[in-house]
Every structure is written in C-alpha cells, then in structure tokens.
Specification:
Layout: E1 17-21, H1 28-40, E2 45-47, H2 66-78, E3 81-85, H3 89-97, E4 102-105, H4 107-110, H5 113-122, E5 130-133, H6 140-152, E6 158-162, H7 180-188, E7 193-196, H8 198-202, H9 205-217, E8 222-226, H10 244-253, H11 264-300, H12 308-323, H13 329-361
Parallel strand pairs: 1-2, 1-8, 2-3, 3-4, 4-5, 5-6, 6-7, 7-8
Helix pairs in contact: 1-2, 3-5, 5-6, 11-13, 12-13
The chain binds phosphoenolpyruvate and manganese (II) ion.
Length: 362
C-alpha cells in the first residue's frame, strides 16, 4: 500500500499540524479546562493518555476507560478532534467505540510487533488516522515495520511521531533526538507525514521551544506537545508539560521556513557541494590505494600493520591543521579515526591475500 500524506477530516493540514493536551487525562475538570484553553488558542486536535505505560509499577497508570467519556465531552464542547494512545486490541476497541478520532501507538508498544499486530487487526476495516511513535530503541526498520503492519490491515492513514530514543546515559535530553533517524525515515518514505514530540525528547519545559524549532527547520510536518493547565501538579511527566498559553507563545514565535527544495542559487551551491564530494571520494580512493601499497611493503618487510607512534603523530598534526581550517576538532578526530580504521582494514586484507597466495604456492 502506498503511503500518502496524512489526511484528517475537517483539518486543513498546514505546518505545523499541532496535537496538544495533557500527558494523562487526570480528571474531568483537568481534561475539559485544558481543552477549553487550547481550543481558545486555536488548537484543533486534543491529545490525552488514558492508559499510561509507566516505567515502574505503583505510579499513576491512567484513569482508564472512564477518560474516554471526558474526551467525548471535549469533542462535544469544543469541536476539537481527540487522540489517545492504545497499546492493545482492547484499548483500540474501546477507543473506537467511544468515538476517539485519532489513535497513537506509544514508543514502548511500537517496539513490540505482537502488540502492533493485534492493534492493526483490531483496526481492520476502520478508516482512521494512526500515529506511530518511534520505538524506544533506535531501530528504523522496527518503526517502519509498525507502520507496515497497520497498512497491511488496511489502515491507510498512518503518520510517524519522532519522540526520541532511550539511552542508558542521561544527557541533556530525556530521550536522545538522533535526528538522523527521522531524516532517514523521510528519505525512505518521502510522502509520510512526520511529527515531532518535543515533550518526550526534551523532558523539560525549557527545551520544548528549541526542539520544536529544530523540527520545523528539518522540515517536520507537525508537533505533538504535552500541555496541562497546571503542570506543577500533573500526575505524570510534570517537568515537560507546558500551559496552553505557553504553547500559544511558542507557536507564535516558531519560524516556519518554506520547504521548497530548490532555487537557482541553491542549485549552484549544490553543484559545488557535489563537486567537492566527488573530489573527496577520489581522494579517499587514492588514500586507500596508498594504504594498500604500504600494506604490501610492511608484509614483505615483516613489519606490523599498526604502528602506534606513526598513528599518534598523524592525528596530532592533522588536528593542528584542522584548527587553522575552521574545522571542528571533534569532527576531524572522528573522521580521521574512521579513515585510519579503514586503512588498517585494507592493509590486513593485503596481508591476508599475500599470505594466502604464498600458502597456495608452497
Ligand atoms: C505519551 O505521549 O504520553 C507517551 C507515553 O509517549 P511515549 O510513548 O512517546 O513515551
Ligand atoms: Mn507523557
């Protein structure tokens, strides 16, 4: 089945398409008041988690089915469309029965093909938008596989949500953005609508704006942002939820750049880049051929492939050179390591070939 840009009845999809609402539905009042404020700020799609996947037991695990009734009230009162997370067939059936408009599959669930399959089967014959969050682990095929399972059951309106990837080491982000993964997703499936969830990537209120701006600059289609009337007392993810008014302010300052892919000037610069890449590749090829030549010499003179002093000298002089060329030191170091590793591999190949042919001759 062919992937098409997301289509949602009654919503004109302009960038950014925004879904906002609390991490969790907590009470009728919190759900409705958040919705009222969001609707007053022009938000058209309301999100709220009813069944919450929590890392440890004993935390707030969502209000369950009761929350579906509150979502219905949101829809009736504000006219917003509603979205919730489903993690199994039962959730899916209940959400469908209660008229939820859009479903999303959470990061823990999209990592589990059994769960995705049962959700997909529960959606057989139902035409509604389903958003697939990236799996917690950075596995692009698993992410695409989840979308494919849905499409194979006839769900034609799928979109992806980038919410960052889990890492053992905690850094600035709650979940590492690893932007190259959604970028590769876009390269492989150019028509797929991709949203960004800055709340789960950042894990902090002050990161929502810069991550959202970065997502827009990378050409994402929209944002899913956790929004709560009173984040301080939120029962889940309180550090990353913002108020409807903060969201409004962020949306008003986001710079949405034109996504058109080319202009005469850009084309010219791209020709220059293509030429530079061409020279780079030819140079690399030359460099590897010299490395193989060195390999042959070392083999014939019974010298080891790796000569640490020489390697250290090479890295030091090249890094000093890089400083004068406005190249980032860390980048140059990584690049040199990769080039050196490949040279060593090529030299080993030469060693093995020569050793093999000597053996064959003897
Ligand atoms: C959520 O959106 O509230 C949520 C649980 O997200 P994720 O699956 O990305 O952790
Ligand atoms: Mn959350």
């Amino acid at each position: 089945m062919e992937i098409k840009p997301l289509h949602i009845e009654g919503i004109e999809i302009t960038r950014p398409l925004v879904l906002a609402g609390p991490c969790s539905a907590e009470s009728e009042e919190q759900v409705l008041e958040t919705a009222r404020q969001l609707a007053a700020n022009g938000i058209k799609i309301y999100r709220a988690g009813i069944w919450k996947p929590r890392t440890k037991p004993g935390g707030f695990e969502g209000v369950g089915s009761e929350g579906l009734r509150w979502l219905k009230m949101v829809k009736e009162e504000t006219g917003m469309l509603t979205a919730t997370e489903v993690a199994n067939a039962r959730h899916t059936e209940e959400a469908l029965k209660e008229g939820v408009d859009i479903l999303w599959i959470g990061a823990r669930t999209s990592a589990n093909p059994f769960a995705v399959q049962e959700i997909a089967e529960a959606l057989q014959g139902v035409d509604m938008p389903v958003l697939v969050k990236n799996p917690v682990n950075p596995d692009l095929d698993l992410w695409i596989g989840a979308a494919e399972r849905l499409m194979a059951c006839g769900v034609s309106r799928v979109a992806a949500v980038h919410r960052g990837f889990g890492a053992y080491e905690k850094g600035l982000f709650r979940n590492q953005p690893q932007w190259h993964i959604p970028i590769e997703l876009k390269r492989r499936l150019p028509s797929l609508t991709i949203l960004c969830d800055p709340s789960h990537i950042g894990g902090r209120q002050d990161l929502i704006y810069p991550i959202s701006q970065q997502a827009m600059d990378l050409g994402f289609d929209g944002l899913m942002v956790e929004t709560h009337i009173n984040p301080e007392v939120a029962l889940s993810d309180k550090d990353q939820q913002i108020t409807p008014d903060t969201l409004k302010r962020i949306l008003s300052i986001l710079v949405i750049r034109d996504r058109s892919e080319s202009s005469e000037f850009l084309n010219e610069l791209r020709r220059d880049i293509d030429e530079a890449d061409d020279r780079l590749l030819n140079l690399l090829s030359q460099r590897m051929s010299i490395a193989r030549e060195i390999g042959r010499y070392k083999m014939e003179h019974n010298m080891p492939v790796l000569q640490p002093l020489r390697y250290d000298k090479m890295v030091t002089t090249r890094l000093a050179q890089a400083m004068g060329l406005e190249l980032d030191e860390e980048f140059v170091k990584l690049m040199l390591e990769a080039i050196h590793e490949e040279s060593v591999r090529q030299q080993f190949e030469v060693f093995n070939k020569i050793a093999l042919s000597k053996k064959e001759k003897s």
